[in-house]
Amino acid sequence: MSYVPDNLSYTASHEWLEKIADGRYRVGITEFAQEQLGDIVFVELPENNEAYAQEDECGVVESVKTASDLYAPLGGTVVEINDALEDNPELINDSPYDNGWIFVIELDDEADLDSLLSAEDYRNSIEDED
Amino acid sequence: MNKTSLYQSHLDAGAKMVDFGGWQMPINYGSQIEEHHAVRRQCGMFDVSHMTVIDVEGDEATDFLYKLLAGDIKKTAINQAMYSTMLNEDGGVIDDLIVYKQSDQHYRIISNAATRDKDLAWINNQASEYQVSIQEQAELGIIAIQGPNSEQLLNGLVDVDLNQLKKFRAVQSGDYFIGRTGYTGEDGFEVVLPAEQAPQMWQRLLDIGVIPCGLGARDTLRLEAGMHLYGQDMDEDISPINCGLAWSVRKQDHDFIGGSVISQQREQGAELKLVGLVLEGRGILRHGQIISDADEEIGLITSGGYSPTTEHAIAFARISKQNQNKKLNVSIRKKTLSCRVVKLPFVRNGQTLLEE
């Protein structure tokens, strides 16, 4: 069973979110997602200062096996991206919840938070997939 | 779903299993990239027991294979292996395979897993006019041991001196049929053995430090080595002349199945060729991406991926034979990126052949 930290929120498309300030969320992909992808070899990051609607495609994570789209888990503006992933995409494999974070988004509408999954909901959703 | 006799060995080694052509096979045992490097630098092993082993025996075995295969079986010596395509009447590739000559009356074909049913049907059908018996050897397993240390490591486990076995030659040693062949671009061996003995052999190889490698690494290794994958780089709709396999087709006596089409194509000249591409920007080249030259579509990528040895995105592209440009464009999602056109292979004997 993949590690799913209790203190984070999740999406069905395997992003995690960590609240780092009011209205600001750090986003990455889950341990389960990186395990499914295998060795990650390329990350196309979202544009900094770019606005995305919730569930917009905002980047791509590519592994040796396949390309997987990254979706904006909340509508809002990307205010920080993890440049380190450009040269070291494997950080997502090594440290999906920490050094492998992908971007920080500032949300437009608190209501978007309602669609996120709790750790328990997410655990249940990947049990079905595994 | 079919399982090889090494299924439990894979699970014990922590493999991630996937469905591959109707078989449960390991895609990796953790990190595909580490497995790839193990083969380039030391020694790795693959379970390829899912591949189809077909023995062709009889007084007319040579004549039959001369008709069945586009390669020249008559130039193959006893204990030598030949890579060949098997074509339909239109010159399209039914499959690619290795055939080992054991004697004038006995040959062993190893062909792909996903094409098993159609291969057997085709071969049996064509064989009806010849004095030959066609026997699938489903009770055999195959372990490929690949990498620069293969000879040294495998030598301790077999009763023959592998130093005496030349490339593309094979030897029978007790229950083991050992070919100095592979699909990685490295030195290595493929050991065909009774399936029930495969787990013990696998364990002995593990015990001396051979790294288990999955189908994922097998694919990136063969891509770097410039080796074709059936179903991606060729299929029944293309002839070997147009997909970079002309070298494997005999130069005269086109009296094999599909030969009249090949002979015509040779006279007229090929329309298409297979080239190597190296992506210059950031991204990954993948099967199916469109290749263009000055905004005009000229072909597509048949195989692509990340190359762990060169640390570049590399690919095979099928493009118009006339195109001599050194740079081409690839469409990746919404972007157009530049690629360098290079000669295949990308890597040989552990070393990148790309010029920086």
Account of the protein in words:
The complex is a heterodimer of chains A (130) and B (356). Chain A contains 4 helices and 9 strands, in the order βββαβββββααβα. Chain A has 130 residues and is an alpha+beta fold. Chain A has a single domain (9-125), classed as RNA polymerase II/Efflux pump adaptor protein, barrel-sandwich hybrid domain (OB fold (Dihydrolipoamide Acetyltransferase, E2P)), CATH 2.40.50. In chain A, the strands form 2 sheets. Chain A has a 6-stranded antiparallel sheet. In chain A, strands 4-6-7 form a 3-stranded antiparallel sheet. In chain A, a hairpin with a 4-residue loop joins β1 and β2 (15-21). Chain A is globular and about 35 Å long. Chain B is α+β, with helices and mostly antiparallel strands. Chain B has a domain at 271-352: Elongation Factor Tu (Ef-tu), domain 3. In chain B, the strands form 5 sheets. A 6-stranded mixed sheet of chain B has the order 11-12-13-10-4-14. In chain B, strands 15-18-17-16-19-20 form a 6-stranded antiparallel barrel. The radius of gyration of chain B is 20 Å and the shape is globular. The termini of chain B are far apart. At the A-B interface, β4 of A face loops of B.
Briefly summarize what is shown.
The complex is a heterodimer of chains A (about 130) and B (about 350). By secondary structure, chain A is of the alpha+beta class.
Which secondary structure elements does this structure contain, and how are they paired or packed?
The complex is a heterodimer of chains A (130) and B (356).
Chain A: E1 9-10, E2 15-21, E3 24-29, H1 31-37, E4 40-44, E5 51-52, E6 57-63, E7 67-71, E8 76-81, H2 84-87, H3 91-94, E9 103-107, H4 119-129
Antiparallel strand pairs in A: 1-2, 2-3, 3-9, 4-6, 5-8, 6-7, 8-9
Chain B: E1 2-3, H1 7-12, E2 16-20, E3 23-28, H2 32-41, E4 44-47, E5 52-57, H3 61-68, E6 81-87, E7 93-103, E8 106-111, H4 116-127, E9 133-136, E10 140-146, H5 150-155, E11 170-173, E12 176-179, E13 188-194, H6 198-207, E14 211-212, H7 215-224, H8 259-268, E15 272-279, E16 290-293, E17 296-307, E18 312-320, E19 327-332, E20 335-342, E21 347-348, E22 351-352
Parallel strand pairs in B: 1-3, 4-14
Antiparallel strand pairs in B: 2-3, 4-10, 5-8, 5-9, 6-7, 7-8, 10-13, 11-12, 12-13, 15-18, 15-20, 16-17, 16-19, 17-18, 19-20, 21-22
